[in-house]
Amino acid sequence: MKVHPIPAENAQQVDVVGERFYRAAMERIVGTPPLNMAVIQPTPVILKREPTNAHDPLAVAVVIQGEIVGHLSADDAAHFAPELDRVEAAGAVALVQGTLWCKTTDEGLMSNVRLQIPRDWVFDGFIDDAEYVATPGATTKPKRFRGPWFIVLMVVVLELIFLPYPVNVILALLTFSAGAFTLGIVKLRNQKRSE
Question: Are 17 and 108 within one domain?
Protein backbone atom coordinates (compact mmCIF):
# COMPACT_ATOMS: atom_id res chain seq x y z
CA MET A 1 0.00 0.00 0.00
CA LYS A 2 1.28 3.45 -0.87
CA VAL A 3 1.02 5.90 1.99
CA HIS A 4 1.82 9.51 2.73
CA PRO A 5 2.94 9.76 6.38
CA ILE A 6 1.58 12.99 7.85
CA PRO A 7 4.41 14.50 9.94
CA ALA A 8 3.83 14.87 13.67
CA GLU A 9 5.68 18.20 14.01
CA ASN A 10 3.36 20.90 15.41
CA ALA A 11 0.55 18.32 15.49
CA GLN A 12 -2.69 19.01 17.29
CA GLN A 13 -5.10 16.48 18.73
CA VAL A 14 -8.03 15.65 16.47
CA ASP A 15 -10.88 13.65 17.99
CA VAL A 16 -12.57 10.96 15.90
CA VAL A 17 -16.38 10.81 15.98
CA GLY A 18 -18.91 8.00 15.60
CA GLU A 19 -16.84 5.24 17.21
CA ARG A 20 -19.97 3.79 18.84
CA PHE A 21 -21.22 2.71 15.41
CA TYR A 22 -18.10 0.59 14.87
CA ARG A 23 -17.92 -1.46 18.09
CA ALA A 24 -17.74 -4.76 16.21
CA ALA A 25 -14.75 -3.52 14.20
CA MET A 26 -13.03 -2.31 17.36
CA GLU A 27 -13.59 -5.69 19.05
CA ARG A 28 -11.96 -7.40 16.07
CA ILE A 29 -8.93 -5.14 16.57
CA VAL A 30 -8.51 -5.22 20.37
CA GLY A 31 -10.65 -8.14 21.51
CA THR A 32 -12.75 -7.71 24.64
CA PRO A 33 -10.82 -6.16 27.53
CA PRO A 34 -11.86 -7.30 31.03
CA LEU A 35 -14.78 -5.38 32.49
CA ASN A 36 -13.84 -1.82 33.53
CA MET A 37 -10.21 -2.19 32.45
CA ALA A 38 -8.90 0.32 29.92
CA VAL A 39 -6.79 -0.43 26.84
CA ILE A 40 -4.61 2.46 25.65
CA GLN A 41 -2.05 2.27 22.84
CA PRO A 42 -0.55 4.37 20.06
CA THR A 43 -1.48 2.98 16.65
CA PRO A 44 -0.98 3.87 12.98
CA VAL A 45 -4.19 5.21 11.42
CA ILE A 46 -5.17 5.62 7.77
CA LEU A 47 -7.39 8.51 6.69
CA LYS A 48 -9.50 7.61 3.67
CA ARG A 49 -11.84 9.92 1.79
CA GLU A 50 -15.45 8.80 1.24
CA PRO A 51 -16.78 11.07 -1.52
CA THR A 52 -19.82 8.82 -2.00
CA ASN A 53 -20.83 9.05 1.68
CA ALA A 54 -24.59 9.77 1.79
CA HIS A 55 -24.29 12.03 4.84
CA ASP A 56 -21.28 14.11 3.83
CA PRO A 57 -19.48 14.20 0.45
CA LEU A 58 -16.37 15.46 2.29
CA ALA A 59 -16.42 12.54 4.77
CA VAL A 60 -13.11 11.07 5.92
CA ALA A 61 -13.06 7.52 7.31
CA VAL A 62 -10.62 6.58 10.08
CA VAL A 63 -9.14 3.12 9.45
CA ILE A 64 -7.12 0.91 11.81
CA GLN A 65 -5.85 -2.49 10.58
CA GLY A 66 -8.20 -2.35 7.59
CA GLU A 67 -11.28 -1.63 9.76
CA ILE A 68 -13.25 1.63 9.75
CA VAL A 69 -13.50 2.72 13.39
CA GLY A 70 -15.00 6.20 12.98
CA HIS A 71 -14.83 9.42 10.96
CA LEU A 72 -13.40 12.89 11.24
CA SER A 73 -15.94 15.47 12.40
CA ALA A 74 -17.65 17.45 9.62
CA ASP A 75 -15.47 20.50 10.37
CA ASP A 76 -12.23 18.49 10.40
CA ALA A 77 -13.24 16.59 7.26
CA ALA A 78 -13.95 19.85 5.41
CA HIS A 79 -10.58 21.22 6.56
CA PHE A 80 -8.49 18.19 5.56
CA ALA A 81 -10.47 16.83 2.56
CA PRO A 82 -8.71 18.91 -0.14
CA GLU A 83 -5.25 17.68 0.91
CA LEU A 84 -6.50 14.11 1.35
CA ASP A 85 -7.93 14.29 -2.19
CA ARG A 86 -4.45 15.28 -3.43
CA VAL A 87 -2.91 12.31 -1.56
CA GLU A 88 -5.40 9.88 -3.07
CA ALA A 89 -4.97 11.41 -6.56
CA ALA A 90 -1.28 10.52 -6.17
CA GLY A 91 -2.29 6.88 -5.58
CA ALA A 92 -1.78 6.79 -1.81
CA VAL A 93 -3.60 7.19 1.49
CA ALA A 94 -2.65 9.41 4.42
CA LEU A 95 -1.05 7.74 7.45
CA VAL A 96 -1.15 9.46 10.86
CA GLN A 97 -0.27 8.56 14.43
CA GLY A 98 -3.29 7.87 16.59
CA THR A 99 -4.05 6.81 20.14
CA LEU A 100 -6.62 4.09 20.70
CA TRP A 101 -8.56 3.91 23.97
CA CYS A 102 -11.07 1.14 24.76
CA LYS A 103 -12.91 0.01 27.86
CA THR A 104 -15.48 -2.72 28.38
CA THR A 105 -18.47 -1.55 30.44
CA ASP A 106 -21.82 -3.11 31.31
CA GLU A 107 -23.12 -1.49 28.10
CA GLY A 108 -20.41 -3.07 25.92
CA LEU A 109 -17.14 -1.86 24.45
CA MET A 110 -16.59 1.90 24.60
CA SER A 111 -13.83 3.36 22.43
CA ASN A 112 -12.15 6.60 21.47
CA VAL A 113 -9.54 7.38 18.84
CA ARG A 114 -7.46 10.55 18.80
CA LEU A 115 -5.17 11.61 15.98
CA GLN A 116 -2.11 13.85 15.82
CA ILE A 117 -2.38 16.10 12.75
CA PRO A 118 -0.91 19.57 12.16
CA ARG A 119 -3.74 21.97 11.28
CA ASP A 120 -1.51 23.49 8.61
CA TRP A 121 -0.63 20.13 7.03
CA VAL A 122 -0.12 20.31 3.27
CA PHE A 123 0.57 17.28 1.05
CA ASP A 124 4.19 17.63 -0.09
CA GLY A 125 4.10 14.78 -2.62
CA PHE A 126 6.09 12.31 -0.48
CA ILE A 127 4.81 8.72 -0.81
CA ASP A 128 6.16 5.61 0.87
CA ASP A 129 5.46 1.87 0.86
CA ALA A 130 3.93 0.54 4.09
CA GLU A 131 2.55 -2.94 3.55
CA TYR A 132 2.38 -3.55 7.30
CA VAL A 133 -0.35 -0.92 7.72
CA ALA A 134 -2.88 -2.88 5.68
CA THR A 135 -2.14 -6.25 7.25
CA PRO A 136 -4.73 -7.17 9.92
CA GLY A 137 -3.08 -7.98 13.22
CA ALA A 138 0.24 -6.46 12.19
CA THR A 139 0.22 -3.96 15.01
CA THR A 140 0.53 -5.39 18.48
CA LYS A 141 -2.53 -5.76 20.64
CA PRO A 142 -2.89 -2.87 23.07
CA LYS A 143 -1.71 -3.55 26.59
CA ARG A 144 -4.35 -3.64 29.26
CA PHE A 145 -4.23 -1.15 32.08
CA ARG A 146 -3.50 -3.04 35.31
CA GLY A 147 -5.48 -0.70 37.56
CA PRO A 148 -7.14 -3.32 39.81
CA TRP A 149 -3.79 -5.00 40.62
CA PHE A 150 -2.28 -1.63 41.43
CA ILE A 151 -5.12 -0.92 43.86
CA VAL A 152 -4.75 -4.32 45.56
CA LEU A 153 -1.00 -3.84 45.98
CA MET A 154 -1.42 -0.29 47.30
CA VAL A 155 -3.89 -1.50 49.95
CA VAL A 156 -1.46 -4.28 50.95
CA VAL A 157 1.43 -1.79 51.25
CA LEU A 158 -0.67 0.63 53.31
CA GLU A 159 -1.76 -2.17 55.64
CA LEU A 160 1.84 -3.26 56.14
CA ILE A 161 2.96 0.31 56.89
CA PHE A 162 0.17 1.62 59.10
CA LEU A 163 -1.20 -1.36 61.03
CA PRO A 164 0.61 -2.92 64.01
CA TYR A 165 2.44 -6.21 63.70
CA PRO A 166 1.20 -9.07 63.39
CA VAL A 167 -2.25 -7.74 62.37
CA ASN A 168 -0.72 -5.99 59.37
CA VAL A 169 0.78 -9.21 57.97
CA ILE A 170 -2.44 -11.19 58.42
CA LEU A 171 -4.61 -8.49 56.82
CA ALA A 172 -2.11 -7.95 53.98
CA LEU A 173 -2.15 -11.69 53.17
CA LEU A 174 -5.95 -11.80 53.31
CA THR A 175 -6.27 -8.69 51.12
CA PHE A 176 -3.81 -10.01 48.55
CA SER A 177 -5.48 -13.45 48.46
CA ALA A 178 -8.98 -11.97 48.11
CA GLY A 179 -7.80 -9.58 45.40
CA ALA A 180 -5.99 -12.31 43.44
CA PHE A 181 -9.01 -14.61 43.69
CA THR A 182 -11.46 -11.91 42.55
CA LEU A 183 -9.29 -10.76 39.65
CA GLY A 184 -8.71 -14.38 38.62
CA ILE A 185 -12.47 -15.02 38.49
CA VAL A 186 -12.98 -11.86 36.42
CA LYS A 187 -10.22 -12.93 34.01
CA LEU A 188 -11.72 -16.42 33.57
CA ARG A 189 -15.19 -14.97 33.02
CA ASN A 190 -13.89 -12.62 30.35
CA GLN A 191 -11.93 -15.40 28.63
CA LYS A 192 -15.06 -17.57 28.46
CA ARG A 193 -17.05 -14.61 27.12
CA SER A 194 -14.51 -14.02 24.32
CA GLU A 195 -14.40 -17.71 23.24
Answer: yes
